[in-house]
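A quick word before the example. In earlier lectures we treated sequence and structure as two separate objects. From today on, think of them as two lines of the same record. Here is Suppressor of cytokine signaling 3 written that way.
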Amino acid sequence: MSSVTHPEVRGQGSDVHPLHYKPFSSHAHYQQVLCTVRKLQESGFYWGAVGGREASALLRSQPPGTFLVRDSSDHHYFFTLSVQTARGTKNLRIHSQGGSFYLQPDPHCTHTPPRFDCVLKLIGHYMGKEGGGGGEGEAGVRTGGGMAAAAGETVGTGSMYLIHSGGEKVPLELRRPLPSSLSSLQHLCRRTLNGHLGGPDPPDTHQLPHTLRDFLAEYDAPI
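And the structure line, produced from the sequence above:
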């Protein structure tokens, strides 16, 4: 595995952590991560180089289910999902391997965690707002040593994801992102349209101007 760095592959938040080298397995992997960073910067809930303590402080006064995406403090990973729960803030590493992103799995769980080609699709899956394909596998996530992991368990007639942290299990609920910046009206309209495009009866976009189709393609998530 080679190590590469690029000025665009770094957070836009506070300079809490120095720039550390990120591991890329191939040029295709580099392009995938770079594309994900650009989409995260458009999302309005990417906090960049924010550490775990700072993320906890930001989320502490928020209701359970509020979350943010930030740069990982561990140089082996690119991103971390921080989410406020009834038991406080939990931090879940987002793995990037084999052309997919997935949450840190519980080693004791037999299920394969869902995998996605973009972090936004991963977030959309756990929010229940999947806007298109790109996901593979079943459930699973966990944490330890300040980090958490998740695992899918069947409850009643359905499945739910649980965060395993410090010997306790907390439901993984992603309800709303914590804004890091104000989104433009154009982006809000695009996000709404993306929600319809991923629905059961998506509108036909072939008649739209190329510039508008390109604008939609730059950010194809409903969140």
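Notice the following. The chain has a mean pLDDT of 78. We will return to this example when we discuss secondary structure assignment.
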